[in-house]
Amino acid sequence: MRMHGTDPRLDDPPGFVGGTLDRVDQIRTNPVLLAETFADPAARRLVLDGLEPVEVDGALVLEPIEADAWVEDHVLLGVDPTGRPIFAELLVELTGGSGATPRSRGLAGQVSAQELALYGTARSLLHWHVRHRFCAVCGGRTAPVKAGWARKCGACQAEHFPRVDPVSIMLAEYEGKVLLGRQHAWPPGRYSALAGFIEPGETIEEAVARELFEEAGIRVHDVRYVMSQPWPFPSSLMIACIAQATGDALTLDATEIEDAFWCDADGVRAAMAGEPEAPFIAPPRMAVAWHLLDRWLAGVAPREPSA
Amino acid sequence: MRMHGTDPRLDDPPGFVGGTLDRVDQIRTNPVLLAETFADPAARRLVLDGLEPVEVDGALVLEPIEADAWVEDHVLLGVDPTGRPIFAELLVELTGGSGATPRSRGLAGQVSAQELALYGTARSLLHWHVRHRFCAVCGGRTAPVKAGWARKCGACQAEHFPRVDPVSIMLAEYEGKVLLGRQHAWPPGRYSALAGFIEPGETIEEAVARELFEEAGIRVHDVRYVMSQPWPFPSSLMIACIAQATGDALTLDATEIEDAFWCDADGVRAAMAGEPEAPFIAPPRMAVAWHLLDRWLAGVAPREPSA
């Protein structure tokens, strides 16, 4: 099975992958450089509506920094390939939850992969700031430092850094079929790879094995990493794997999984082609699960050359 | 290069890998089951000294649960292979920082891989509890819920979950050599793989490329995942990769890296064998960097059969 990093189909990455900003780590911790960067006439502010994207004519909206703006109220996302420093304003309020909305989900079909990645980074960071205005150590107020890449407590001086929550997302494979499941809240017919947060004290591979056993009663071996994706709802790192199951008898955890079944390559291919007779509705192309299924298909049954 | 999950040397894992506890997710959220589990005469409390391990005769110390103990003050680490529920007490105070101590580091040579993994899980969780007694959203007091696998704010009801911070740790490879670096605070002569936290909005592969460019001025392609390791100081998920460099000219970030050099397979082999003439002192065997170097050696230059 071919699953390595040089696969040419990585030119078509999952959503939020492929950012082109230089994150300019050296500027974040240098107040003089940061002030110069903020004052650069080329600097731009990513326009957002709360945490929601603002898109016009197929592009995110970037505006010049206002003359009366404060650098302390902004995060420096990075410098784009044309040399423009890109900031986002931290003074946002949360209006909804942390999950994907129709508007943020829809952005994938509207802007370039690079802009989608830029939005994802901004969304994760802003969500973290809004939810970390107080110090978890002492309850004091925190303020942004390091160009918005950390917060510091004014009382106990503890520093806090943005969360990235690793999630294992996986296909179990058995006799040419893969295990697909659905959660209660999903649209009718939608099935996808199982997934769960990686916990303290686990490897990626141990988390894959635990999740498959917890959710479906499946034991696996030979867990192989396939690819990863940042998922900004609010700040996951999706780590996609394929594992070999030791059997196909399912014991579902009804609180997590509404249903699950083993699907063969023809069924997966039909679902990904959107065929009405397909055995399930595939996850959207922006999801790493779509690409995981695509890579699995490429391994078990090479596709016909496209027309 | 062979770097897949069936490599028999995974029987000798890095430190903190290979835990054998069933994490019994279904008990955490069921108060009746949790109370029964806590009252189980077989239940044991992992004895710790603050966050430091307590080891006697090559084993961690596990004591019966005291009759007057409260389940609310404990985290349920899981159920061991003999059926004993294993708890740890949450009412600890931090005496030092979050880094490894000589005592916690030394545990690797004293107890089994399974017990080391159990200690690592407990240490990460307890450190998180001590540092999250207040709500980052509103500053209110939080209390443990879900058998110690979450905390909930008494004021705003926000739920908070233990952190796992993904870190990329990597070898860049160029013309049969790998890039090794050292930090200012390390023991003299010690060199290892470069590493850095994965940020919001990045894939694992993008983080590897960014870190190598930030710290050493190296551009890479074809980043390949090799293995992962939980590192409980305080709660990292080390994600080890090998990347192909496009050149070998180094530009070091002096704030992060004291020195770096390209080392050939003979030099790496000598260092890992502890030879006095070796060009550097290898990282300890409990570190994933040791295993990353070992896997790299196995790929580029198969070792002689051991005697």
Which helices and strands appear, and what pairs or packs with what?
2 copies of one chain form a homodimer.
Chain A: H1 25-28, H2 31-39, E1 44-46, E2 48-49, E3 52-53, E4 55-56, E5 59-60, E6 62-64, E7 74-79, E8 85-89, H3 102-106, H4 113-130, E9 142-145, E10 150-153, E11 159-160, E12 165-174, E13 177-182, E14 194-197, H5 204-216, E15 220-231, E16 236-245, E17 259-264, H6 265-272, H7 288-300
Helix pairs in contact in A: 6-7
Tell me the CATH topology of the largest domain in chain A: Nucleoside Triphosphate Pyrophosphohydrolase
Low-pLDDT segments, ≥5 res of chain A = 1-10, 303-307
CATH architecture of the largest domain in chain A: Alpha-Beta Complex
Strand content of chain A: 25-35%
What is the CATH class of the largest domain in chain A?
Answer: Alpha Beta
Query: What is the total tally of β strands of chain A?
Result: 17
Structural class of chain A, please? alpha+beta
> Residue share in helices of chain A?
10-25%
Radius of gyration of chain A, taken over Cα atoms and rounded to an integer in Å = 21 Å
Largest sheet of chain A: 6 strands, mixed
**Which H/E pattern describes the elements of chain A?**
HHEEEEEEEEHHEEEEEEHEEEHH
Q: Total helix count of chain A?
A: 7
Whole-number mean pLDDT of chain A: 93
CATH superfamily of the largest domain in chain A: Nucleoside Triphosphate Pyrophosphohydrolase
Give the oligomer, counting copies of the same chain as homo and different chains as hetero: homodimer
Q: Rough shape of chain A?
A: globular
Largest interface: A-B, 63 and 63 residues
Count up the domains of chain A.
Answer: 2
Distance between the termini of chain A: 24 Å
